[in-house]
Write a structure and sequence with these properties.
Layout: H1 7-20, H2 23-35, H3 43-55, H4 60-85, H5 96-123, H6 142-150, H7 153-180, H8 187-214
């Protein structure tokens, strides 16, 4: 007997999959590269070298388009479709999962605009009134370019909100992926993986904020200790 799979089911599964691979992998790599700036004395050199190494990848624009921009565009646009079609019920049923669902939708909308801002600003240097120099095209000045942007108060606020939203969306998205794909089965498994995702998110939040602070304070959050 043939099993019919709906188009919506496939689109939602693809949406979840693109959020974990390749976008999740790219996020971890992005945080790793940015953390190079947190070295207490050689942060600028290490970050510039890391950016130069990435830009030296053969056919880098094709690689970015295939494995980052296209999956990101699909994930973002279909995520907006899901958000428009969603019917939050956390006021009637104030359980943690209901709130997590609502926050997942909210952070998705925030990220849609934040990522546009981030890509135009640092990847292409096309954000009017701010950065006119692309980090990707000037890796030898990458640290200085980012540090200049982060010296602007409201830009730091935008990135703080963006980083926090990104981490929530990713960490909670991992949990949803594990549950929906039948990897975490049963209440106990789902509870334990939920705790693990919270811990993972907390670590990523520190890494992300620490890397951001490193551009305005040598060594990042621990600069005065190390």
């Amino acid at each position: 007997m043939a099993i019919r799979v709906s188009k919506t089911f496939i689109l939602r599964k693809l949406h979840q999959l693109t959020g974990i691979v390749p976008l999740g992998a790219f996020l971890l790599e992005h945080f790793y590269t940015n953390s190079k700036a947190a070295h207490p004395t050689l942060g600028a050199q290490h970050f510039n070298d890391a950016v130069a190494d990435l830009q030296a990848i053969p056919f880098i624009l094709l690689v970015e388009t295939t494995f980052i921009f296209i999956p990101l565009l699909y994930h973002a646009l279909y995520g907006l479709v899901i958000t428009v079609e969603s019917r939050p019920n956390n006021l009637n049923y104030p359980y943690p999962r209901n709130w997590f669902y609502t926050i997942q939708r909210i952070t998705g909308v925030i990220l849609f605009f934040f990522i546009i801002f981030h890509v135009l600003n640092f990847r292409f240097g096309l954000m009017p009134g701010l950065n006119t120099v692309s980090v990707a095209h000037h890796p030898d000045q990458a640290y200085q370019i980012v540090a200049h942007e982060f010296s602007i108060g409201w830009v730091m606020v935008v990135y703080t909100i963006g980083i926090a939203s990104t981490i929530w969306h990713f960490a909670n998205g991992i949990w949803l992926f594990l549950v929906d794909w039948g990897i975490a089965i049963g209440a106990t498994a789902q509870r334990l993986t939920g705790y693990a995702c919270i811990a993972f998110g907390a670590v990523l939040l520190f890494v992300g904020i620490n890397a951001m602070v490193a551009f305005v304070r040598p060594g990042g959050l621990l600069g005065g200790i190390l």
